[in-house]
Design brief:
The chain has a six-stranded mixed β-sheet, with helices on both faces. The chain has 13 helices and six strands. It is α/β, with parallel strands linked by helices and 272 residues long. The chain has two domains: 74 residues, lambda repressor-like DNA-binding domains (434 Repressor (Amino-terminal Domain), Orthogonal Bundle), CATH 1.10.260.40; 193 residues, 2-Layer Sandwich (Endonuclease, Chain A), CATH 3.30.870. α1 runs antiparallel to α5, α4 packs antiparallel against α5 and α7 packs across α8. It is elongated. It holds the Pfam family DUF5753.
C-alpha cells in the first residue's frame, strides 16, 4: 500500500507538470519501464532517486519529509511475510493491514477477523487441500495477528453473516460456545458492527458468494475488494466492480437484522 501510495503521488506530480515518462527515465538514468513500475507501486525508488525527483518537481520541505517517510515505510517487510502465507493471500493481508474500514459478507463461515483460535484451527484443518498439517498453526497465528487492528479502534469492521454461518458453527459443540460468545463480545465494541442475514429473507443479492471490501485513508488509495474460493482468492481493483459490490453490501445490510436483533439471533444458537 505504501509503495502504491508513493507511486500514485509520483505519477500525479509528473502529470501535473505534463512530463512524459521518457523524460523522468532520462533524468534518473533508467528505463521507462522502471519509471512505470515505480508509479504503479510495483517497486520503490531509492533514497537518491526520490531526492532527484523531489528536486525536479520543486517540492516543499514538508512534502519531501512525507514522501521520504512513505518510502521508508514501503521498504519494510510486513509482519505477514514471516508466516509463509499463500501469495494470493499475502497481497490481501498487506492491504487489510492498511485499511481503515473493512466490510465483509460471509455465506458459510465466521469472518477471519472475528474467529476464535479454535475456530480458525478447525477451518484450516478442514481445508487440508490448501493448508498442510505442518502449516496449520502458522496460519492460525497469522489470523489472530490480523485481529490486533480491531483492538485499537484504528479499523472499523462491518460484518454481515448469513444465518448459515451460525448454524454450521453451532453444529460443532467443541467450537460453538467459544465462537458465538466471541461474536457477542466483539459486537459490543464501538468499531465493530455485526449483522445476521436470516434465512427468512430468502434469495438475496449475493447468493453466489462471499466478498470483502477494503477502504483506505483519504488521498491514499481507492477502495478494493477481495473474493475467495475453494482453492485461492483474488483482489478486485476495477472501480465499477468495487462500486457494484459496495451496492450489494448496502442491500445485504438493509435486509439483515439490526445489531440488537442480530445479537439475539447469535445468542439463540448457544442453546442449540
Amino acid at each position: 500500500m505504501r509503495r502504491k501510495t508513493l507511486g500514485a503521488e509520483l505519477r500525479k506530480l509528473r502529470n501535473a507538470q505534463d512530463l512524459p515518462a521518457e523524460e523522468i527515465a532520462s533524468l534518473l538514468g533508467c528505463s521507462v519501464a522502471k519509471v512505470r513500475h515505480m508509479e504503479n507501486g510495483r517497486t520503490s525508488p531509492s533514497k537518491a532517486e526520490l531526492k532527484v525527483l523531489m528536486d525536479h518537481y520543486g517540492l516543499s520541505q514538508e512534502r519531501r519529509e512525507l514522501l521520504e517517510e512513505t518510502r521508508e515505510g514501503a521498504r519494510k517487510r510486513g509482519w505477514w511475510s514471516t508466516y509463509r502465507l499463500p501469495s494470493w493471500f499475502q497481497d490481501y493481508v498487506g492491504l487489510e493491514t492498511d485499511a481503515v474500514r473493512v466490510r465483509t459478507f460471509e455465506l458459510e463461515m465466521v469472518p477471519g477477523l472475528l474467529q476464535t483460535e479454535a475456530y480458525a484451527r478447525s477451518i484450516n484443518v478442514v481445508g487440508s487441500h490448501m493448508t498442510q498439517p505442518e502449516d496449520v498453526e502458522r496460519q492460525v497465528n497469522a489470523r489472530i495477528r490480523r485481529q490486533e487492528r480491531l483492538g485499537d479502534d484504528s479499523m472499523e469492521l462491518h460484518a454481515v453473516l448469513s444465518e448459515s454461518a451460525l448454524h454450521r458453527c453451532a453444529a460443532d459443540s467443541t467450537l460453538a460456545s467459544g465462537q458465538l460468545k466471541r461474536l457477542l463480545e466483539l459486537g459490543e465494541r464501538p468499531n465493530i458492527t455485526i449483522q445476521v442475514l436470516p434465512f427468512s429473507v430468502g434469495l438475496h443479492a449475493s447468493v453466489s458468494g462471499s466478498f470483502t471490501l477494503l477502504d483506505f485513508p483519504l488521498e491514499t488509495w481507492p477502495s478494493m475488494a477481495y473474493q475467495e474460493y475453494a482453492v485461492g482468492g483474488h483482489l478486485v481493483d476495477d472501480k465499477e466492480a468495487v462500486a457494484a459490490l459496495g451496492t450489494v453490501f448496502q442491500r445485504l445490510g438493509d435486509l439483515a437484522l439490526n445489531e440488537k436483533d442480530s445479537a439475539a439471533a447469535i445468542e439463540s444458537h448457544l442453546g442449540n
